[in-house]
Amino acid sequence: MDSRLLTSAVTLRVNGTVHRLTLDNRSTLLDTLREDLDLTGAKKGCDHGQCGSCTVLVDGRRVNCCLLLTVACDGSEITTVEGLSDGWSLHPVQEAFLARDAFQCGYCTPGQVCSAVGALREMAEGRPSAVTVGTEPPSGAAEIRERMSGNLCRCAAYPNIVRAVGDAAERAAEWWERTP
Amino acid sequence: MDILRTPTDLAQRGHGGVGESASRPDGVLKVTGEFAYASDLWARDMLWGHTLRSPHAHAEIVSVDTTEALSVPGVHAVLTHADLPAATHYGLEIPDQPVLAGDVVRYHGEPVALVAADHPETARRAAARIRVEYAELPLVTDESTATAPGAPVLHPNRSDHYADRVPHPNVVHHQPVRRGDLAAAKARAEVVVTGEYELGMQDQAPLGPESGLAVPAEDGGVDLYVATQWLHVDREQLAPVLGLPRELVRLTLSGVGGAFGAREDLSMQAHACLLALRTGRPVKMVYSRDESFVGHVHRHPARLRYEHGATRDGRLVYVRGRIVLDGGAYASSSPAVVGNAASLGLGPYVCDTVDIEALALYTNNPPCGAMRGFGAVQACFAYESQMDRLAAELGMDPVSLRQLNAMSQGATMPTGQPVDAPAPVAELLRLVRDRPLPPPRQWETAVGTGTGFDLRALPGGLSNTTRGEGVVRGVGYAVGIKNVGFSEGYDDYSTARVRLEVVNGEPVVLVHTAMAEVGQGGVTVQAQIARTELGVAKVVLHPADTRVGSAGSTSASRQTYMTGGAVRNTCLLVREEVLRLGRERLGDTHPGWRGDGLWLRDGAVVTAGGEVLADLAQVLGDDVIDLEREFRHRPTEPLDPENGQGFGHVQYSFCAHRAVVEVDAELGLVKVVELAAAQDVGRAMNPQAVVGQIHGGSVQGLGLAVMEEIVVADGARVRNPSFTDYLIPTILDTPTMPVDVLELADEHAPYGLRGIGEAPTLSSTPAVVAAIRAATGLALRRVPVRPEHLTGT
């Protein structure tokens, strides 16, 4: 078979850098990030969208990037855990995970952190979750637990993750105002 | 050779000493995604290894044909049993496990052949083209099939240490623990309760799959970067298999994505090294999630029968127990699991007459070995279930019955070993019992929902279609006992190298050990100890590797005790050397140098009264102090093979739980509302990390109670190797977990500390099940408790 039929040219903007790649159509975004772009922060915990360790932000929304074909991301803006810091200081979510000791082995942490950044943005935008009650902006531990429930942590640092995400909520809002 | 993302030094300046909640030296790397896990390794020209595994649990290998696989473009090597260069078997204690199966496969998923190729998918596809012809054999799956007349003997011609004292060749190890006059005690007992219990097969399920990179070296050796729990015992097993002297097999710890026992045995280590040595190229292997579920050992499933005799007023008169553990196809750490189950099978109680026997079977089920709390977890579910049954039989409060029989310092174990350190069992129970209970039926008292009803708080959350009419609450208690460190006469030690020098005017301590950091925070504690003992702000942690002496295993709750002890002792020797040099060089400058009790603080030598004599730059100049020393805990002795008597354990660790559950019995839904824990830690070396360990162990016990089980069926095959089908607790399943920490020093241990990692995993499971029993009135003899056990459907 003509190998051109198996590949596609894709343009991705990852953590602010534009990459023009020619890829096997079957490549997942996770493999592209890890194997082609040398960004190994996102982890392959299951490769089936079950554990959340591969969570990154695509156009500002959380995705399990092991389930996403890279060709479907052509033209997208992708933020991985490596791109959350502004180059000078850690993202408030990263700071909060450190302060609250919200991890042990840390393998799920890049996914947890990206997921928390996405979740806090969804809450700040007033987007309801499955458990949002009433019309007030979603907040509180029940919302955090629901929104973080796609990210497994086998060390079970969950109580500290809930606290870290709660701590980060206010500071994250300020952060978005000063970062594009 | 270009190799990327190998571990680097972890440097930290001034972040707290012993007893403070110092931050993790690897913390920033972990939250920024820069921490290099074993699955992230990369080398120029590296190949990818893949393992072909058996689809059968017991079969003869009739033939293997690798021709077609070798012809796949991109394939560089295919290896089978026939290609093994030296020793063909390995094992932690008994070398009964083939590196690649020879004539026979003994479990579903056993490695049969290896492929190295230039792409992981090429390797996988080539492996599928290896033609293996199997002839299936009869299965041994439980005690009755293992010991039936004419049962297939899975390991004929055994020559191991246990072979001549087991009742059947399909029994790996058998340990009775007998004390007291059973006949007399039976005559005295006024109340007797008996029960049979069963635990399913739990998996450690670390999120980081088995991974590593083997790099062939010019000297004919190999460098292996790997996620493991014990570098040196990996090397002990690898060198004979590779046919290399030990010094040519060099291991470096790569980032470990959780362990919980799953990395005690070899997985991909020998395979990657063999492929690398065969091809002359670096070889990386990373297991997929489904492969990980068959590629490491599991927690032993168990069947337990107990009989408790007591007086009317609730004092234990005798306890009999029989604990049958399924070890699966290979021995792994089964002997130690048996020893723990037998010696700790009474629980943290006092009873003069005990007759407990534990044994592990060889079967064709997946091999079982280490998982957090091994042996003690299985026993605790049964003896704590029995204590509740006894309390019910006597009409006593279950906590009061436990407190009445609780051991304390000075008690005697069923092994005859005196308990010569604090054992605050009754106090731990009091702490969890005296906590206020969380308010019931919180869905009815929801605030701010506008409806006065909060579905989120119901068992099952939003998927509960009722308004809580059928929900009942229950409260349950349990307490457990775990040994710390390697037991039964094992020469258990750790090694630390500590180097002190002054760099650009600043004193710097380098700590180098082979301790596997698997998430427990051992590197944090090492840095804390160095700061405390040497009074230096800047500490650099060298990557763990085999260039320094063994640290022993990151298991048995032992590393803070053992490697912490090694770092402390070596630091103290470095300090002595600093003081010797100071006296020699500066002794005439101040009378304080002649005094006792000099120590190091803020980069200076100070007197006992705190007066500064000299800073370290003055004392050391350009000299470097670099010492490496071993540390041992006090010796233990083997348990007697007939009666289990002996000073078998180094230290004991205790934790108690209270679980509060709400159960929708009609829908079979359980919500653990709160799981309170109390644990004696001797000394909280890092209070924040201590609480994290207690949370983590408690949740893994909760998982065993209500959801976690490897399903082995359809010819002893693993049927649920995924996170869709093997459920582990999520953030939604995790209740609030208040923790009480006691710090009663153990005078035998460094800083008085007690190993903490495993004890919370023991009592969490029976506490949750006791709470479900209290809510439903059901007997619930088996974990995990499934919805159908509650609904009777």
TrEMBL record, chain A:
Recorded hits in CDD domains, A to Z, give: fer2 (cd00207)
Xref: Gene3D superfamilies: 3.10.20.30, [2Fe-2S]-binding domain
A single Gene Ontology molecular function, please? 2 iron, 2 sulfur cluster binding
Query: Domain 2Fe-2S ferredoxin-type: where?
Result: 8-84
> Quick one: signal sequence residues?
none
Q: Does the keyword Iron-sulfur apply?
A: yes
Origin, by domain of life? Bacteria
PROSITE patterns with a match to the protein in the record: 2FE2S_FER_1, 2FE2S_FER_2
What the entry lists under Pfam families is as follows: Fer2, Fer2_2
Q: Which UniProt keywords apply?
A: 2Fe-2S, Iron, Iron-sulfur, Metal-binding, Oxidoreductase
UniProt xrefs under SUPFAM superfamilies: 2Fe-2S ferredoxin-like, CO dehydrogenase ISP C-domain like
* Pathway linked to the protein: Alkaloid degradation; nicotine degradation
Against PANTHER family, the record matches this protein to:
OXIDOREDUCTASE WITH IRON-SULFUR SUBUNIT, OXIDOREDUCTASE, IRON-SULPHUR BINDING SUBUNIT-RELATED-RELATED
Q: What's the name of the protein? A: (2Fe-2S)-binding protein
Automatic annotation (TrEMBL), chain B:
Against PANTHER family, the record matches this protein to: XANTHINE DEHYDROGENASE, XANTHINE DEHYDROGENASE SUBUNIT D-RELATED
NCBIfam families given in the database record? pucD
Which GO terms label this protein's molecular function in UniProt? Answer: iron ion binding; oxidoreductase activity
Q: In what residue span(s) does the Aldehyde oxidase/xanthine dehydrogenase a/b hammerhead domain sit? A: 32-138
The protein's superkingdom reads Bacteria
Q: What is this protein called?
A: Xanthine dehydrogenase subunit D
Biological source species: Wenjunlia vitaminophila
- Locate the region Disordered: 1-25
